[in-house]
RNA sequence: GCCGGCUUAGCUCAGCGGUAGAGCAACUGAUUCGUAAUCAGUAGGCCCGGGGUUCGAUUCCCCGAGCCGGCACCA
């Protein structure tokens, strides 16, 4: 006699076991029609699930947050059925819902191409129109294995074999098609609706392991209705316009070319942006008690052997050889990291505990031979400059330094337009230097520091650096991809390997702990994200060109030159546009160039000594004196850390 | 590195087994104009590189490079 409590607190009692479908029907025909699944005692299950005992129940309809995930998961099943109907012999593997959609990985000799999408989508619509109910059955492990072995689905068999013994093995059928699945699902394929679209194909390794076979993955997106789908597709189009590679070209910020794969050619305007950020960072670091150093690019193999890079990182290092040195010294490497160099600086002379924490910063240029497939615009490159620093400190100072670092990073991110970021905690990787005792201490210290700093993080197991655990500060680009920018890493290993020590209060020699930390991460990556964040429309202090002085007629040219000269003298980054073009055209061009301020000058302004300012892409005009314009723009262009 | 796709003028893109086109940009001239594209003209191409098939390849095939999307990698 289950008594079912609904979200509004009302209780309904039934004679015997009931299903969600029956409960919904008993409440009303509207709900019976709308309910797709239900949450039973906090767990999302099929509507057809039998309820035998008292329970709390909430129906999930298309409006609810869970609906999207259900639609996407069901859509993945529909995709799999469609593919198997159209391409017999294709094996199915897994097909989960993901952010904005779903994918399904197939095993097939011939990978799918986007040319297959039209046929597959048509078949999917057919399957959805059939509205076959999703039917759950629970089976014994041996039966499941037999079923999928008979079908020739060896990946499914492998999945079943690896399920823990405690796990119930369930199948979901839709018409004649059946898949191994945990569920839950909606009532039938018709509930998927028609607001879906196949997006792209990709190779993906079975179970994410690169020595496993490559599967053919089809990505799709699915939404509640056409309107949502259209909005999503429109959002993607807009995001494409923010792509830093596109804006970099349009705004003449940088370029890349084959002769230097994975490197950036910064053009004058891009370099101005870079320098503006670098100057800002240098001031922030000065204020935060860092000292700045500059260390070599090319170092002898001996150093990399000592640091552990030779063993753990060599595959990512560029080598340099010279002919006229003996065997032992002819191999050098471009530094992939700055840390060993900083230890070498630390090791000069005798250090005292009084000097700690010693915060040693460097805008360090590094080279890493990244796998070709990893390169991505200026976000993932082979030559980059980190806003790197290493804090040499005592173990007891880790927490305080972490608190300070997180405060500094938050300040910088806010100043540069990022109000939120994700934090991940990456612990010991499989390939690492240092014994487990050292790792226990390092991870413990970092966890404790996070607790004290009040940093909430997500665990990222096994992803730490080879020398220590790390915090990753992650920002998101225009297309929704996440990039690690800031980082904080606790390292007991390198000081040991490179013999760093200091004289402690008691006169004994001790090993310092080393905190590796970066805020921007690399200038290249960070500027890429910054470009996308602002879609190239930078706030005045960052804009490579802050003001364009544009004339309406040639008669205003002399005055325009004066205006530009005065602005320039006041430190404003200004350009002149004296072209023989109509002002309309000039407005359009500078909007396209994402110039923040246009100063328009005609005969009237030349006569009155005035300037008409227009904040692009806005339409409003301000008419002010030249002196006022200069003062105002100068004030507005002050970097956030220098504002009164 | 792996799977797939792409690569034609500075940019965005057509094209096609008979050696190439548009728009924008550039250049020249006219126009001097008051806030979202003035008009006319001119010039511009190892059609990514290397092989092959063919009477003939930018087009078809193979190899390579770079880029793009994922996957793997990512101090």
Structure description:
The protein is an alpha+beta fold and 644 residues long. The chain has 4 domains: 3-60, Roll (Ubiquitin-like (UB roll)), CATH 3.10.20; 65-238, Threonyl-trna Synthetase, Chain A, domain 2 (Threonyl-tRNA Synthetase, Chain A, domain 2, 2-Layer Sandwich); 255-534, Bira Bifunctional Protein, Domain 2 (BirA Bifunctional Protein, domain 2, 2-Layer Sandwich), CATH 3.30.930.10; 547-642, Rossmann fold (3-Layer(aba) Sandwich), CATH 3.40.50.800. The protein has 20 helices and 36 strands. The chain has an 8-stranded mixed beta sheet. Strands 2-1-7-4-5 form a 5-stranded mixed beta sheet. β14 and β15 form a beta hairpin. The chain is globular, with a radius of gyration of 31 Å. The protein starts with a strand and ends in an 8-residue tail after the last helix. The mean pLDDT is 93.
